[in-house]
Structures are given as structure tokens and as C-alpha cells.
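Supplementary Methods S3. Complex input for the tryptophan-bound model.
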Amino acid sequence: MNTPSTLDISEPEKQKKHIVTDIDALDLSTQKVLTGMRPSGKLHLWHYFGALTNWITLQNKVKCQFLVADYHVLGERTEDIERLKENVMDVVMDWLSVWIDPEKSDFVVQSYVPEWADLAQYFSMITPYSRLAQNPTLKNEMKQLEESWQNEALSLGFFGYPVSQASDILLPRANLVPVWADQIPHIELARYIARTFNRKFGNVFEEPRALLSPVSRLVGIDGNDKMSKSLWNTIMLSDSADRVKEQVMKMYTDPNHFRVSDPWKIEWNVVFTYLDIFESNKEILADMKYQYQKWGLGDVTIKKHLIQLMNDFLQPIRERRAYYETRPDIARDAIEAGSARARKIAQETIEVVKSKIGIQRY
Ligand code: TRP
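Predicted complex, serialized as C-alpha cells:
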């Protein structure tokens, strides 16, 4: 059930100085943030706990650009491309619903700022093929795409998306990138590219650091290591109260439990993984765990408790979502304005980059 994790980070990784886990330890006055998501539709709880919580904190402290990486979906699933418009709006509306504020940070769409493609082109010239071919996250994703029946052939664009991601980060000269752990190889590539560019053409870029979320993983409702729409094991931020109930009732608990009176296990118990996040009263939580292990507190009892907590948490988000759905111009204006501001900075960087490289009117 619990497949080996690609999300775990090892101790040696944590020691790396370009991997930051504690926002408070940073000198935020020197930080510039860019992070993003591929627009693959509505967001789920793992997007929230694995990423958006950090964004919410950061938007109050530093200049941030939040990117809808629409180029990145072009290289993969074709059914997503047909729904691109809807998917972009879904992502932006979910950001708005969880209080990410376009007045504080810029919401930007990759394709609205063509300088991203421009910079990626230059970067691709200084990126060794072998470095991409060895990128573990990319290798993993390519394998999955190759195995999936939908995919005709792996595109060059997909193979090169980590280079495009380096461009995402470096174009606004960001130096801090909130991401999940599987993105670390991409941040390392961006660092390599920044370093190589500076060495070849002169100092332009800072080597960015990765900021990891305090919650390093959130299993799906089936106990699978990754919550993902393609695995059908998600709870979406916009799910109705009934749907949340349904999903929690399906959650995987202890497979070896047969009688109510048997003591049950809490390790690998999905309900407790979620309660660890949603039950802020640690005494109640500790007591439930104790009772559950000792006397077999019923699955339904703990599930009902979780349903209540989860719906309390999601209700205001749903209400905000309903508000934005009836006013799509708010989302649209946010990405127009944010992208226009991003473009200004982008053009400045591109000017510098071109002059350093020696690209000019010949
Ligand atoms: N590749 C990231 C993901 O799949 C999304 C992304 C695109 C991104 N561009 C980025 C993340 C730039 C951080 C910075 O989650």
C-alpha cells in the first residue's frame, strides 16, 4: 500500500544549504520569491498543505510571483490541453479562495510573458543533455508518461521543462522557491544554470534556494504516498461537505483489524495522518490515539470527528470559491495585472541577458 516515497528527503539533503525548511530563519528582506503550479484543474488538500500554506505566509513578508505554468502542460496530457482555459481559472480561483491575495503578490501566467520562452531558449544552450537525462524527478515522470497509454511520444518540450522552470525562477531574479521535495533536482538545475551563465557571460543571476513546506507529505485517502487526481484518491478544496464525508468514509485504516474490541494500529492509518493536521487540540488527539490503540475506538468515530474538522476548515474556502466563480473577472484581472507587472521585470532581465551574451542587431 505504501509505495516507496519520492517525497521523503534524506538527512544529507536536509544539510544542503540551498534547502531551507524554516522561513523564520531567513533574512526575508533579501528574498524574492517565485513559485508556481501547472494548471491541471482544481486543487486538493496536498496542494494546500504542501504548498499554499507557505505561500500564504510568504505573501505577507516578501515580494512574490505566483506562476500558472501553462507551457508546462503542453508537453504532456492532451486532455488537459483541451481544458486549459478552465484549468487555469480553476487554479487561480482556488488561490483566491485560500486567501492568496493578488494585491500583495503577482499572479502571473507563463504564456502572457513570452520572455520566459526567450530566456529558456538561451538556457537550453548551456544545459548539458546529460544533466537533464539524469534528473531523477524528470526520469520518473518520463517513465510514467511512457507507460501511460495516452501518451503517443515523449516531447522534447517535456524533456526540457526543467530548463523552462529554471527560466521561470531566474527571469524575475527570484532567489527563494517554495516547492515540494520532488522539485529539488529542478532547483539544483536552476542553480547550475545560474552559475554557468554567470561564469560564461558575467554575473546576472543569484543561485536560488528551495523552501520546503513544514508538511512534507500527505497520503491519499487510499494510503498511497501521493495525493493525486490521476490516482482518484484526493479531497479537493472545493469538494462539497457530502463529498468530503464520502471520501473520509472510504479512508484506509488498519487492514488487520477484525473485531471492534481488538486494539488497532495508528501507524499507516490514514485517518490519523489527517487528524495530525486537522486536530489542533493535541490533547484530544493524543487521547483519541490512546483509546484507539487500547480499546479499539471505532473507525466510524474517528472518521466522523475528521469529517467535522475538515468541513469546518473547508467551509469558508468553499464560500469564497462560490463568490469568485460568479465573478470570473476578478481572477482574470488578477492574472492580467500580475503578468503585466512581471513582464516589466522580465524585459529588464532579458535586456541584460542579451547584452551579456552578445545577442544584438547584427
Ligand atoms: N514543476 C512544478 C510542479 O510540477 C511547477 C512549476 C513550474 C514551478 N514552474 C515553476 C515550481 C517554478 C516552482 C518554480 O509542481
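The pocket of tryptophan is lined by residues 34-38, 67, 69, 72, 165, 168-169, 177, 179, 183 (CB under 6 Å). The radius of gyration is 22 Å.
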